[in-house]
Amino acid sequence: MSDRIEKQIELKASLSRVWRALTDHREFGEWFRVKLDGPFVPGQVSRGHITYPGYEHLQWEARVQKMEPERLFSFTWPHPKSIEAANYSPSPDDPVTLVEFLLEKTKNGTLLRVIESGFDRLPEDRRLEDFRRNEGGWAEQMKNIESYVARKP
Description:
This protein is an alpha+beta fold. It has one domain: START domain (Alpha-D-Glucose-1,6-Bisphosphate, Chain A, domain 4), CATH 3.30.530. It has helices at residues 15-23, 25-32, 124-151; strands spanning 4-11, 34-36, 45-50, 59-68, 72-78, 96-106, 109-117. A seven-stranded antiparallel sheet has the order 1-7-6-5-4-3-2. Helix 1 crosses helix 2 (25-32). The chain is globular.
């Protein structure tokens, strides 16, 4: 198993459009399916609640790392012991992974890459399950942002 998940997609949208979809907390919330309490600010924690069906009990908490306009947006987010509703109990001690969105202008639009790394810091008994869940989640989120920027140019 790798320490990182990497996905990429070429979006038929400008760098500025993709950047806005990633970093405007309202737009991010629409395609990612999370209701955020406020804007993303480097060095600060972003909070909210997941709105994805079946996961509405989950809190969103991510510490924004970098926002380099039209190039890089990154945050760390925790991996609690369980995301099952009955056992969900986030803790400040939960290990985190780093999520990076990298943008690059292309002939037809924007290449968006997402990299989530740091799975080697997760407890061994949860590492594979969290990796598999997030790998599938990122595949879906790439489709979500693609349809979002196509619907809302």
